[in-house]
Specification:
By secondary structure, the protein is an alpha/beta fold. Helix content is 38%, strand content 17%. The chain has three domains: 3-105; 134-185, Alpha-Beta Plaits; 188-391, Vaccinia Virus protein VP39 (Rossmann fold, 3-Layer(aba) Sandwich), CATH 3.40.50. Strands 5, 6, 7, 8, 9, 10, 11, 12 and 13 form a nine-stranded mixed beta sheet that branches. It has a four-stranded antiparallel beta sheet with strand order 2-3-1-4. Strand 11 and strand 12 (371-374) form a beta hairpin.
């Protein structure tokens, strides 16, 4: 493909991504896979260049552009060499009109800028767009840390137990250690949340928003084999991914429960006031994962954020009902917005006098509003807020 054709393909792909962000459709990565599958004539170099154009635009614009063309036109001051590619020849984009609208604005949507946790200053917000590192968690029941450094001499030990960073681009899933269930790809922040839950060595643990089971598997690796871990979610597709993962990891103490949307309490009635630990990794805006999913900025609106915080409140309440006296609740969001983190915890504690904050002892993170804040700039992790509460 010519450079002009690559630029037009990036515009076309951005149009798909913008529409999906507007309509709450598929993720940018999944859209890109489909896009290139339908364009098999694009070689590896073409695909790489097109992706670079696309993600340069996604990372640059905090507010969702109206079109892919506007998104790339807005980058011309930063990419002046693109100007000559707009002319309509060689399958490239049409010539630029004198009064043509272009994307503009900051990286962080203006309506969100004032909603971050107070510790997240401009430097912290800028780090949300750095390239994310590759972290792995070692399943100590299947391997030793020494086996990791033997397999990957470039592995760097992280501050948490059995956690390592690998060079970006390492093909972890191609290695025997991965196939044997000895390692999982998992951000160190997610590992920290699982550690906070495992600290009390619960006998019965409920992962209320388990998804595909990342934190469920981490708990299983950290707890004795006679512990019982229940992974629950309303998404059948994501929940179904746990079974092959738990077999690979040898986590026979995990069972799954598919929850009926709007009827979650009925499905969990048998666990009411029985759990030593309830982990709520709640759905959120994903502001802490912009390094990996920058198009999430284009999906969130004030209305969607309000809906999300209402859901978080309901999950907080539901999860608390499953905890027995003396048990613990870990609430977590991959968000750095106060409305989804500290405000949720403080509101819960104010309306539930039978609960108290449980200190979290970890080598990473900063205390913040009855919990812990992790961020890319300060901790080298995705952005998270989480808290551990004890039922009296």
């Amino acid at each position: 493909m010519t450079p002009s054709a690559r630029l037009q393909a990036a515009i076309d792909l951005l149009d798909w991504i913008i529409a999906a962000a507007r309509d709450n459709g598929a993720s940018a990565d999944n859209i890109a896979k489909k896009f290139f599958k339908e364009r098999r004539y694009a070689g590896s170099g073409d695909r790489r260049a097109i992706r670079e154009h696309v993600y340069a635009a996604i990372r640059r614009w905090g507010d969702r552009p109206d079109s892919g063309r506007q998104a790339l036109l807005g980058l011309l001051d930063e990419q002046p060499e693109w100007r000559e590619l707009f002319g309509g020849g060689n399958y490239g984009p049409a010539a630029i009109a004198a009064d043509e609208p272009v994307a503009s604005g900051p990286q962080v949507p203006a309506w969100l800028a004032g909603r971050f946790a107070s510790l997240i200053d401009e430097a912290e917000q800028s780090a949300l767009f750095d390239r994310a590192p590759l972290h792995i968690r070692v399943n100590a029941q299947r391997a030793t840390d020494a086996s990791i450094t033997a397999a990957w001499p470039d592995a760097v030990a992280l501050p948490l137990p059995h956690a390592f960073a690998l060079p970006t681009g390492t093909q972890v899933e191609d290695m025997p250690l991965y196939r044997d269930g000895a390692v999982e790809i998992q951000d160190m922040g997610s590992q920290a949340i699982a550690l906070a839950g495992a600290a009390s060595t619960p006998k019965l643990a409920l992962d209320l928003c388990a998804g595909a089971g990342g934190k469920t598997l981490a708990l299983a690796a950290m707890l004795p084999s006679d512990s019982q871990i229940i992974a629950a979610d309303t998404d059948r597709g994501r929940l179904s991914r746990i079974d092959p993962r738990k077999r690979r990891a040898g986590a026979d103490n995990i069972e799954t429960i598919l929850l009926g949307p709007g009827r979650e309490a009925e499905s969990l009635q048998h666990l009411k006031s029985r759990c030593d630990l309830v982990l709520i990794d709640a759905p959120c805006s994903g502001t802490g994962t912009w390094r990996r999913n920058p198009e999430l900025r284009w999906r969130m609106t004030p209305k969607r954020l309000d809906h999300t915080t209402e859901l978080q409140q309901r999950l907080f309440e539901l999860g608390s009902e499953m905890v027995k006296p003396g048990g613990h609740l870990v609430y977590a969001v991959c968000s750095l917005l106060d409305a989804e983190g500290g405000e949720q915890t403080e509101s819960f504690l104010e309306s539930h006098p039978g609960w108290r904050e449980k200190p979290i002892d970890l080598p990473i993170g900063r205390p913040y509003r009855k919990g812990v804040l992790l961020s890319p700039c300060h901790d080298g992790t995705d952005g998270f807020y989480f808290t551990c509460l004890e039922k009296l």
